[in-house]
Task: inverse folding
C-alpha cells in the first residue's frame, strides 16, 4: 500500500468525495451527529456557476436542521422576489403559454412547515461549507480521488493534491461518492448506468440585460423564477433574478423541432449563435444585453444499476442523472444525504447493526428512478415534445409535483409494519396521506403535554428517534425509558377526532415512532385495541428492526 510521505496512512471514519451541494450537506449532517468526516474536492473552492436554485420544502427542512433556513431566506431576498414562478412563454415579448406554478409558495403552508426558496448553488455552497467546518468536518480542496480499493472492513483511497501533485493514502470505514454527474467513483467501481440516456447537449448563456427600461416594456419581463420559452427558434429556459443581472438562459433545443441536430445546440455553440438564441428568447430587437460566458453540458436521464458497492455508496448526481426540468437534481441529492447521514452515524457509534446502510439503497433507489422518470416527463412536456416516445417506452408513472417533492414513500427492512409494504405506492398526497411506516411524517401542528401550542411536528425531527404518544401513553413512556434513550418521547395533547389522531392514525394510548430523517418507522394505533400485552417487549422488537440490530 502506498503510504504518505511520512509513512503513515491517514484514517477517517467517513470519506466524502466531492465538495459541492451534496458532499457539503452530508459533511455538515455527519458532523452534527459528531461523526468525523473528510470532504475532498478537486476544485480549489466551491461552485462557480449558479445551477441548482429552486430548493424544495424537504430540502429546506434539512437546511433548517442545520440552522441555515433563516439565513437562506434572507440571502434569497437579495436576488429574488418573495413571489417566484414557473411558467412557459413564447418569448419575453410574446404570449404567456402556461403557468406551472404562478407563485411557488402558494398554499404551501397546508403541507409543509418550510417554504420553497430560490438560492443559487454559488450563494448556498459557501454557507454549507462554513457550517460543515464549524461543526467539525475536515475539508480539503484542490484534492482529487484517483483510485480506491476496499475489503470487508475499510476503503482505501489514493488522493492527489492538484497544486503539488503529491499523492497520499487515506483509509475510511465508508466512502461516499458525491462526485457528481461524471462520478469518478462510479467509474472506478465499474457501476454502469441505465435509462433513456442523452437528451440534449445543452448550452448555458450567462448574460446581463443592459437597458432595463426597454426590457420593462415587454409583456413577460416582470416574472422572476424559472421561465421556459418555446417558439420555432428555441426551446429553453431563463432563470431570472429580480434585477435580471445574474440571469442565465439554458438552450436545450434550437431550430427545427424534432430534428436530430436541434437537440445538440452545444455542438455549434459560438458567441454568434448564443446571441441569436438569446434574441429569439427575448423576442425584441431593441433590448441590449451583454453575454458574460457560455458553458456546455449534457442533459441525461439515467440511474446507476446500484447505489452501493461494499462500503462505497453513491449520492447526488453520482446516483441519478436527470434533466433540470422541475429542479429535482440537487434536491434529490440533499435527500440522499439526509437518508444516509443518520444511518452512518448510528452504525459508527455502535448503536445500529452493520447492515443498516444497506437500507440506503433499498429506500433511495426507487425514489431516484421515479424522480429521474418524472424529470424526463417534465422535460418532454416543457421542452422537447418530440421525445414523448421515451415516456411511453419507460412506462413513466407521473406524480404530481407536490407529491414527488414532499411525500415519497420508503420500503425497506428498517421499517416495522404488521403487513407487507405495498411497494407500488411510491408517492402519496401530502395533504391527505396517513402516516404509515415508510411515509414522510407529514406536516401537522401539535400541542405538547408540557404546554407548547401549535408547534410544527417537524420541529422535533433531526436529532434522533422521537416517539410521539398521547395522554394515555404512560406504558410507552416507561418502555422507552428502559431502552437507554434510543427513543426520545414527546407527549402530545390531542382529541381523538382531531387532525393529529386522524392523520397519524393514533388514539390516546397509541404511539408513533419517527426516524431522525422525519420518516415514520413504526406506529401502534392503540395498546388496548391492538391488544398489546407487553409494550416494552414490543418496543424492543421495534428497536431491533429499525436499527437492523
Ligand atoms: C442549468 C442547470 C440548472 C439546474 N437547476 C437545478 C435546480 O433548480 N434545482 C436542483 O435541485 N437541481 C438543479 N440542477 C442540478 C444540480 O445542479 C445538480 O443536481 C447538483 O449540483 C448535484 O450536486 P452534487 O453535489 O451531487 O454534484 P456536483 O454539484 O456535480 O458536485 C460534484 C463535485 O465533485 C467533485 N469531484 C468530481 N470528481 C472528483 C474526484 N475524483 N475527486 C474529488 N472531487 C471530485 C467535482 O469537482 C464537484 O465539485 C441544475 C443543473 C443544471 C445544469
Ligand atoms: C503536476 O503534473 C502536471 C501533469 O503531469 C504538470 O503539468 C505540472 O507541472 C505538475 N505540477 C507540479 C507542481 O509538479
Ligand atoms: C396505496 O395506493 C392505493 C391505491 O391508490 C391506496 O388505496 C392505498 O391506501 C395506498 N397505500 C398507502 C400506504 O398509501
Ligand atoms: C398496491 O398498490 C397498487 C396501486 O397503488 C394497487 O394497484 C395494488 O393492488 C396494491 N397491492 C396490494 C397487495 O395491496
Result:
Amino acid at each position: 500500500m502506498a503510504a504518505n510521505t511520512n509513512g503513515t496512512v491517514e484514517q477517517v471514519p467517513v470519506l466524502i468525495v466531492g465538495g459541492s451541494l451534496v458532499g457539503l450537506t452530508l459533511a455538515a449532517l455527519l458532523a452534527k451527529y459528531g461523526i468525523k468526516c473528510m470532504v475532498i474536492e478537486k476544485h480549489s473552492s466551491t461552485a462557480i456557476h449558479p445551477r441548482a436554485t429552486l430548493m424544495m420544502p424537504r430540502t429546506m427542512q434539512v437546511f433548517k436542521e442545520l440552522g441555515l433556513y433563516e439565513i437562506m431566506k434572507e440571502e434569497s431576498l437579495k436576488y429574488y422576489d418573495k413571489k417566484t414562478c414557473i411558467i412557459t412563454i413564447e418569448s419575453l415579448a410574446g404570449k404567456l403559454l402556461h403557468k406551472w406554478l404562478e407563485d411557488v409558495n402558494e398554499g404551501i403552508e397546508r403541507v409543509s412547515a418550510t417554504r420553497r426558496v430560490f438560492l443559487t448553488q454559488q450563494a448556498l455552497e459557501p454557507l454549507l461549507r462554513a457550517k460543515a467546518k464549524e461543526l467539525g468536518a475536515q475539508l480539503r480542496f484542490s484534492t482529487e480521488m484517483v483510485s480506491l480499493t476496499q475489503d470487508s472492513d475499510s476503503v482505501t483511497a489514493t488522493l492527489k493534491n492538484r497544486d503539488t501533485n503529491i499523492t497520499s493514502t487515506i483509509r475510511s470505514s465508508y466512502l461516499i461518492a458525491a462526485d457528481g454527474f461524471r462520478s469518478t467513483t462510479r467509474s472506478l467501481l465499474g457501476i454502469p448506468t441505465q435509462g433513456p440516456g442523452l437528451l440534449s447537449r445543452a448550452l448555458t448563456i450567462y448574460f446581463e440585460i443592459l437597458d432595463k427600461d426597454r426590457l420593462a416594456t415587454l409583456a413577460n419581463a416582470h416574472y422572476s423564477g424559472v421561465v421556459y420559452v418555446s417558439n420555432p427558434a428555441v426551446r429553453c429556459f431563463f432563470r431570472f433574478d429580480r434585477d435580471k443581472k445574474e440571469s442565465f438562459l439554458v438552450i436545450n433545443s434550437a431550430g427545427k423541432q424534432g430534428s436530430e441536430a436541434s437537440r445538440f445546440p452545444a455542438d455549434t455553440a459560438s458567441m454568434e449563435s448564443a446571441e441569436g438564441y438569446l434574441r429569439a428568447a427575448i423576442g425584441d430587437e431593441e433590448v441590449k444585453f451583454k453575454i458574460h460566458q457560455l458553458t456546455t453540458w449534457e442533459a441525461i436521464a439515467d440511474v446507476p444499476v446500484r447505489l452501493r458497492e461494499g462500503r462505497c455508496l453513491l449520492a447526488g448526481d453520482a446516483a441519478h442523472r436527470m434533466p433540470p426540468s422541475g429542479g429535482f437534481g440537487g434536491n434529490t441529492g440533499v435527500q440522499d444525504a439526509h437518508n444516509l447521514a443518520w444511518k452512518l452515524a448510528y452504525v459508527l457509534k455502535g448503536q445500529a447493526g452493520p447492515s443498516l446502510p444497506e437500507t440506503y439503497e433499498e429506500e433511495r433507489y426507487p425514489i431516484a428512478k421515479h424522480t429521474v422518470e418524472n424529470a424526463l416527463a417534465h422535460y418532454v412536456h416543457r421542452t422537447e415534445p418530440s421525445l414523448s416516445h421515451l415516456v411511453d417506452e419507460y412506462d413513466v408513472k407521473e406524480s404530481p409535483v407536490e407529491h414527488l417533492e414532499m411525500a415519497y414513500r420508503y420500503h425497506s427492512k428498517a421499517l416495522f409494519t404488521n403487513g407487507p409494504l405495498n411497494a407500488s405506492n411510491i408517492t402519496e398526497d401530502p395533504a391527505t396521506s396517513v402516516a404509515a411506516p415508510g411515509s414522510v411524517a407529514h406536516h401537522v401542528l401539535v400541542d405538547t403535554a408540557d404546554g407548547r401550542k401549535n408547534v410544527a411536528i417537524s420541529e422535533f425531527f433531526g436529532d434522533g428517534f422521537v416517539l410521539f404518544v398521547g395522554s394515555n401513553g404512560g406504558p410507552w413512556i416507561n418502555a422507552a425509558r428502559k431502552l437507554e434513550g434510543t427513543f426520545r418521547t414527546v407527549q402530545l395533547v390531542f382529541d381523538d377526532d382531531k387532525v393529529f389522531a386522524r392523520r397519524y392514525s393514533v388514539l390516546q394510548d397509541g404511539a408513533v415512532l419517527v426516524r431522525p430523517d422525519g420518516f415514520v418507522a413504526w406506529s401502534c394505533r392503540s395498546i388496548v385495541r391492538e391488544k398489546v400485552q407487553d409494550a416494552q417487549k414490543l418496543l424492543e422488537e421495534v428497536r431491533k428492526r429499525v436499527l437492523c440490530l
Residues 17-23, 40-43, 51-54, 144-145, 178-181, 184, 204, 250, 297, 316-317, 324, 327-331, 333 surround flavin-adenine dinucleotide (ligand 1) (CB under 6 Å). The chain is about 30% helix and 25% strand. The first helix runs from residue 21 to 32.
